[in-house]
């Protein structure tokens, strides 16, 4: 459940969800039911899915972003409330592009749903962000998967699963304001290695060093 695991406090948490317009209502209704069922509470309790955010300050920041989106005309489908550092899992619809809830990293339990009709246009819309780390794409069409791979401005593409997946051996990282370089054993070793060059021309050999 890519938007809400770790209470959304992951850089590859799902924040913007584009849904094909002909199945939008069906998907959103199912999401509302599922999100409302997520249990909030003590993270030490195995039945808890949504725990506290890292601090009350961060929860207040997210609350302000949601209120700003509501003031700009979005619809709260569920959630949006805060108690201290606990923030309810929140699903918004029709979020204006210029709001913090849409454009800035939420780093909390927030998901914004939007309709799309044309696939190429939604890829362009996904690129309309200063961030670009991971994208999840659900499709039965391999051509669309490769179109997304060739055109998305992102460090990783996960086909038929949420973007909130990584393995330590993967070249994990993003583009634009999502950072430079890649995590992963091989790639971390390369980043910490000083590459040097030695050129040799017209030299003989000697027994002495």
Low-confidence stretches: none
Q: How far do the termini sit from each other?
A: 63 Å
* Global shape: globular
Number of helices: 6
Mean pLDDT value: 95
CATH class of the largest domain: Alpha Beta
Family: Belongs to the aldehyde dehydrogenase family.
Keywords: Oxidoreductase
Catalytic activity: D-glyceraldehyde 3-phosphate + NADP(+) + H2O = (2R)-3-phosphoglycerate + NADPH + 2 H(+)
Domain Aldehyde dehydrogenase: 1-197
Account of the 3D structure:
The protein is of the alpha/beta class and about 210 residues long. The chain folds into two domains: about 1-115, Aldehyde Dehydrogenase, Chain A, domain 2; about 120-195, Aldehyde Dehydrogenase, Chain A, domain 2, CATH 3.40.309. Helices cover about 30% and strands about 15% of the residues. It is built from six helices and ten strands. It has helices spanning about 25-35, 55-70, 100-105, 120-125, 140-150, 185-190, and strands spanning about 15-20, 75-80, 80-85, 85, 90-95, 110-115, 130, 135, 155-160, 175. A four-stranded mixed β-sheet has the order 1-6-5-2, sandwiched between helices. A two-stranded antiparallel sheet has the order 3-4. A two-stranded antiparallel sheet has the order 7-10. α4 runs parallel beside α5. It is globular and about 80 Å long.
């Amino acid at each position: 459940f890519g938007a809400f695991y770790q209470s959304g406090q992951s850089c590859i948490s799902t924040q913007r969800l584009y849904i094909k317009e002909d199945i939008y209502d069906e998907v959103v209704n199912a999401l509302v039911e599922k999100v409302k069922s997520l249990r909030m509470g003590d993270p030490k309790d195995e039945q808890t899915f949504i725990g506290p955010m890292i601090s009350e300050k961060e929860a207040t920041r997210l609350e302000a972003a949601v209120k700003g989106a509501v003031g700009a005309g979005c619809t709260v489908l569920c959630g949006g409330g805060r108690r201290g550092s606990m923030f309810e899992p929140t699903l918004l619809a029709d979020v204006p592009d210029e709001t913090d809830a849409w454009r800035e990293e939420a780093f909390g339990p927030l998901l914004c749903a939007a309709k799309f009709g044309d696939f190429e246009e939604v890829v362009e819309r996904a690129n309309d962000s200063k961030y670009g780390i991971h994208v999840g794409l659900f499709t039965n069409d391999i051509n669309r998967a490769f179109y997304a791979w060739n055109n998305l401005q992102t460090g990783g593409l996960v086909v038929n699963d949420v973007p909130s997946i990584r393995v330590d051996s993967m070249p994990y990282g993003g583009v634009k304001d999502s950072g430079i370089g890649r995590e992963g054993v091989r790639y971390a070793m390369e980043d910490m290695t000083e590459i040097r060059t030695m050129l040799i021309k017209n030299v003989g050999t000697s027994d002495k060093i």
